[in-house]
Recover the amino acids of this structure.
């Protein structure tokens, strides 16, 4: 027992201060893209051709679809003009699918809070039922991380629960394999209304690396009404947390 | 050990025409004689040959770091099963039966593997329409007080989907049957054709917690087929990333094992420290899961001296913290009482089933690809292989911990002496009409990729074997005779991949 107490003392308090304090991300972290449209020569498609999942568009000018983006280094490497780079800004979640498309010079769109009625229902307590529908276990791992002492999601009143009957919202990861479609829909139906849906990760939003799979559905689009899209392959835990806190209007004393 | 196999090595490619095509009888005779003589099956799969089916078998002979390849052509809709002589073939045969619509005569357990559509069917046979997922004849125990417990596909936590059927007598589990396939994305079919940037992304996400393990195997396949060289520095960086992957997962699982026996200090500490190892992977390449690091020909990102020093400093701190957290387990009698003797897999069972990785080593099997078929940096720098005898949850926890220590040593050693300058060499076109095989030791065990190219250098068949393919049967056996309440604990001690199995 004394050893456990000593260990507790040694390990210390390690919960992140986010959102009150910013998170320091690794130098190579690839977050919100920065587009310099002026640097793009006419008819140049180098970055778009290098993108393995077709997340980059060039018509009429450069755009990146964060719903498809795997945040890999390919486009940056392919561009000799410095037209595209990825910042360390991990705030990526949005409420609507089309808001995930980033265009140069456009105003930044972050996830907005739920309306007053939904906030009154879920603002102080939001319970999720997770369904993994073909995910590779990375989105799942970095969602699980939020419940560790490093993040302590429970302090915001957010929790993952075992039964859909106890849940307020569905948490979807994976491209929705045909083999999981029915289980996903049944779980959604088992959650009492009103309910929310979060699509976490590139797979759930648009199929991720499995885009075009003959055995999966390129994500939940057209299948479920999504309230929060969290891009990434997988999303960094802070991207997930940031999206959730914005949805629940809990950013409060945000910095930077 | 002179057999009719074509001998090759890990990461090498051979011309397809050199692979012996034996008659069915000869093939099976060689297979059984090989297994008798100390060979082990690492891959056994089908590929369409015209309208017929060609079976390829790849075997490992560990003391010579040798791999053997042979094949046979099946012209009818059936082939004799060898499972009664070699149980390690049982799932391979089921997989071939499902993927190529044939029957293995005499197979004791002919059930679906992933409920997938066949890749091809024998001539004149209409392709079988698979059952609805999860609909099959489950093994049933009858009796007055026998009951059945069905769990999944959707589980209570944030866990991948799978279906588990327990036959119980009171609390005691008489039998567990595991039915998977829910995560099936058809990766083996999607990666056919010319290798592209997207192929690599799909390989990295076969099992996303084994990104480096599968990514490296794929890179080795392409390098083998293209005859490409990889700089020494890239090999070292790949090795560091692979061991970081092992550290993150072993640490997380040790914490989860502690959580499953209700010992919260270690569960809490390890949950966070696991994240620190993921953060170190992100320092290497920007992604906590090592995405975008390994590419055919080398790695995408260098480890500059300042980064090496920073990583070494953080590794030292993490070592101190994880040691402090995990040693609590061994010092706590209530924890040890729950780990010892729970979920035993005997050495005989492990050997028969062909278990791999820490699960095999915990049952006393001394096998590790890093030593038996060394690749990359492991050709130069060896890690001691850790084994235990008990085959129980304690043994699996202990082996994981000993591997954590060795991986930490390895990373420190590599960071102190990163060789050379170059991190990637160009890779030429993939060779035509070849077979390449690549094995890596992921944190769950042996990852095996085999590729067959056609006359234009496109992938005609790509076979992926995740360690979980071998090991799910081990979990089922571990549950026999234990209390059903021990299932989460046993499950966590294996922590197998659903998506890696389902492909």
């Amino acid at each position: 027992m004394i050893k456990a107490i000593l260990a507790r003392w040694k390990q210390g308090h390690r919960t992140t201060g986010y959102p009150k304090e910013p998170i320091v991300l690794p130098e190579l972290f690839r977050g919100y893209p920065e587009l310099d449209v002026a640097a793009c020569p006419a008819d140049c498609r180098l970055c778009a051709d290098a993108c393995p999942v077709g997340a980059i568009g060039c018509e009429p000018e450069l755009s990146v679809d964060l719903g498809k983006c795997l945040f890999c280094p390919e486009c940056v490497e392919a561009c000799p003009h410095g037209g595209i780079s990825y910042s360390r800004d991990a705030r990526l979640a949005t409420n609507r699918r089309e808001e995930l498309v980033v265009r140069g010079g456009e105003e930044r769109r972050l996830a907005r809070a739920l309306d007053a009625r939904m906030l009154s229902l879920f603002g102080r307590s939001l319970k999720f039922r997770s369904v993994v529908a073909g995910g590779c276990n990375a989105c799942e791992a970095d969602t699980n991380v939020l419940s560790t002492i490093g993040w302590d999601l429970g302090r915001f009143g957010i929790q993952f629960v075992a039964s859909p009957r106890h849940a307020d919202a569905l948490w979807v990861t994976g491209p929705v394999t045909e083999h999981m479609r029915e289980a996903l829909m049944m779980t959604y139906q088992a959650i009492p209304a009103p309910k929310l849906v979060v699509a976490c990760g590139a797979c759930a939003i648009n199929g991720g690396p499995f885009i075009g799979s003959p055995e999966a559905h390129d994500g939940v689009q057209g299948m479920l009404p999504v309230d929060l899209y969290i891009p990434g392959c997988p999303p960094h835990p802070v991207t997930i947390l940031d999206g959730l806190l914005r949805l629940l209007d809990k950013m409060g004393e945000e910095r930077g | 050990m002179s057999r009719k196999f074509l001998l090759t090595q890990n990461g090498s490619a051979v011309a397809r025409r050199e692979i012996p095509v034996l008659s069915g009888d000869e093939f099976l005779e060689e297979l059984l004689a090989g297994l008798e003589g100390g060979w082990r099956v690492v891959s056994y799969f089908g590929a369409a040959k015209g309208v017929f089916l060609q079976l390829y078998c790849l075997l490992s002979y560990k003391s010579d770091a040798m791999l053997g390849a042979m094949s046979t052509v099946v012209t009818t809709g059936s082939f004799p099963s060898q499972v009664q002589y070699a149980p390690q073939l049982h799932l391979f045969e089921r997989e071939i039966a499902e993927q190529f619509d044939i029957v293995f005569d005499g197979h004791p357990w002919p059930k679906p593997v992933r409920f997938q559509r066949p890749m091809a069917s024998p001539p004149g046979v209409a392709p079988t329409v698979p059952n609805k997922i999860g609909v099959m004849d489950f093994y049933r125990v009858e009796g007055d007080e026998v009951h059945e417990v069905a769990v999944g596909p959707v589980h209570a936590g944030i866990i991948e989907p799978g279906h588990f059927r327990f036959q119980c007598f009171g609390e005691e589990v008489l039998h567990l049957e595991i039915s998977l396939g829910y995560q099936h994305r058809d990766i083996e079919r999607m990666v056919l054709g010319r290798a592209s940037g997207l192929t690599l992304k799909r390989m990295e996400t076969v099992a996303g917690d084994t990104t480096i393990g599968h990514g490296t195997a794929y890179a080795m396949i392409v390098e083998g087929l293209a005859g490409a060289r990889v700089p020494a520095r890239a090999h070292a960086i790949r090795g560091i990333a692979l061991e970081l992957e092992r550290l993150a997962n072993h640490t997380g699982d040790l914490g989860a094992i502690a959580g499953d026996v209700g010992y919260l200090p270690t569960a809490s500490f390890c949950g966070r420290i696991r994240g620190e190892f993921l953060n170190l992977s992100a320092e290497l390449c920007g992604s906590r899961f090592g995405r975008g690091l390994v590419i055919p020909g080398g790695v995408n990102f260098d480890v500059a001296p300042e980064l090496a020093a920073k990583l070494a400093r953080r590794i030292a701190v993490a070592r101190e913290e994880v040691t402090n957290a995990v040693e609590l387990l061994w010092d706590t009698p209530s924890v040890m009482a729950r780990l010892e003797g729970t979920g035993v897999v005997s050495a005989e069972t492990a050997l028969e089933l062909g278990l791999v990785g820490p699960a095999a080593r915990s049952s006393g099997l001394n096998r590790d690809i890093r030593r038996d078929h060394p690749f990359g940096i492991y050709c130069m720098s060896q890690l001691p292989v850790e084994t235990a005898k008990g085959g129980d949850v304690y043994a699996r926890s202990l082996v994981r911990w000993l591997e954590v220590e060795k991986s930490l040593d390895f990373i420190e050693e590599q960071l102190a002496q990163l060789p050379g300058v170059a991190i990637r060499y160009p890779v030429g076109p993939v060779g035509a009409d070849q077979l390449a095989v690549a094995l890596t030791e992921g944190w769950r065990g042996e990852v095996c990729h085999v590729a067959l190219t056609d006359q234009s250098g496109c992938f005609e068949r790509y076979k992926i074997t995740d360690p979980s393919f071998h090991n799910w049967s081990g979990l089922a056996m571990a549950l026999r005779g234990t209390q059903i309440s021990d299932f989460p604990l046993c499950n966590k001690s294996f922590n197998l991949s659903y998506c890696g199995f389902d492909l």
